[in-house]
Amino acid sequence: MYQTKIAGLGKYVPENVVTNDDLSKMMDTNDEWITERTGIKERRHIKKGDGNTTATMGVKAARIALERSGINKDEIDLIVFATLSPDYYFPGCGVQVQEMLDIKTCPALDVRNQCSGFIYAISVADQFIKTGMYKNILVIGSENHSGGLDFTTRGRSVSVIFGDGAGAAVLTRSDHNGQGILSTHLHSEGKHALELSLKGPSTNYWVPEIIADNPQGDDIPYYPYMNGQFVFKNAVQRFSEVINEGLEANGLEVSDIDMLIPHQANLRISQFIQQKFRLKDEQVYNNIQRYGNTTAASIPIALTEAWEEGKIDNEDVVVLAAFGSGFTWGSAIIKW
Ligand code: UT7
């Protein structure tokens, strides 16, 4: 069995900064509420005409990750793209990346696991590398949330949280045993599928039916719905479980964690986990204050920034953990 390591990381966020005060001009909200409940101060939104889409942002992050990895694009054996906000209903963004990066005819796989998307994506990539089937895999998490949110007061409990951006990692076969991804742990619980969801348009709920059901346009299924407190309670429980699961599988203790990078769902969730595991501030990386919740992009953006800021050293134990719509959750334990 081979082992997988991260050879290069990259991130891209749109230039357009949207502060809490900016949002309060569009809907009945305010900086105090958003900061207190979520920790978010600002997020990035794609601006019409700036050329950004889920796929193009993913490509921008990928180019940086590829350059840092020293691996040529033509050596990429597989693209795995995680998003809940693809450019098209079909095909997925993976094939767009293959075309935009001009990579031969490598396979491209799209992963639809929302906030856990990046963990699911690196887990898939890890299995292909471990078995020896592929050597170099480009993994991307990218989201264009702002294109599909309700920026009226009706949508405020969801729309203030989410932001746009992309992160990427080039995964490759590790030369040193014991270095790289030690394990990944994935879960789902579909009975809660609709607690954080966007129901239509879908093949099960197509446009004419939506219009017929909502003559006044008051119950709109094409904006995301979130049962916030229920999601919050499940998140703190599942984050803890899946971090413990990863540590136990590798014979590690909480004190062995050098850096925990939680999916940036809500600063209060990250702080709850930090307190529960008694981790110091320098052992947990958060940037939700600047980007909001970027779903599948949040972990690769945070991981890239933590690495860029010199907060991850060789031999460090890095723990990634996520929870989100599905419900789905997962963790990855990495020896850097
Ligand atoms: O990434 C995927 C996983 N996602 C998560 O883990 C998110 C989990 N949930 C959360 O982060 C929180 O539940 C939220 C941040 C979404 C909401 O915070 P909350 O403390 O659960 O607030 P709430 O939904 O209970 O709303 C409290 C009040 C309500 O008013 P009333 O009924 O008490 O009068 C809301 O209408 O706050 C009101 N409210 C707002 N007020 C100002 C909701 N959104 C806003 C807003 N600005 N943006």
UniProtKB/TrEMBL annotation:
Catalytic activity of the protein: malonyl-[ACP] + acetyl-CoA + H(+) = 3-oxobutanoyl-[ACP] + CO2 + CoA
Pathway: Lipid metabolism; fatty acid biosynthesis
Limits of the Beta-ketoacyl-[acyl-carrier-protein] synthase III C-terminal domain: 247-336
Pfam families in alphabetical order: ACP_syn_III, ACP_syn_III_C
Gene3D superfamilies (UniProt xref): 3.40.47.10
UniProt-annotated catalytic positions: C115, H263, N293
Region (ACP-binding): 264-268
Alphabetically ordered keywords of this record: Acyltransferase, Cytoplasm, Fatty acid biosynthesis, Fatty acid metabolism, Lipid biosynthesis, Lipid metabolism, Multifunctional enzyme, Transferase
Keyword Metal-binding on entry: no
Chief site of localization: cytoplasm
Function comment: Catalyzes the condensation reaction of fatty acid synthesis by the addition to an acyl acceptor of two carbons from malonyl-ACP. Catalyzes the first condensation reaction which initiates fatty acid synthesis and may therefore play a role in governing the total rate of fatty acid production. Possesses both acetoacetyl-ACP synthase and acetyl transacylase activities. Its substrate specificity determines the biosynthesis of branched-chain and/or straight-chain of fatty acids.
Description of how the protein assembles with itself and partners: Homodimer.
Family: Belongs to the thiolase-like superfamily. FabH family.
Record's protein name: Beta-ketoacyl-[acyl-carrier-protein] synthase III
Lineage: Bacteria, Pseudomonadati, Bacteroidota, Flavobacteriia, Flavobacteriales
Gene name for this UniProt entry: fabH
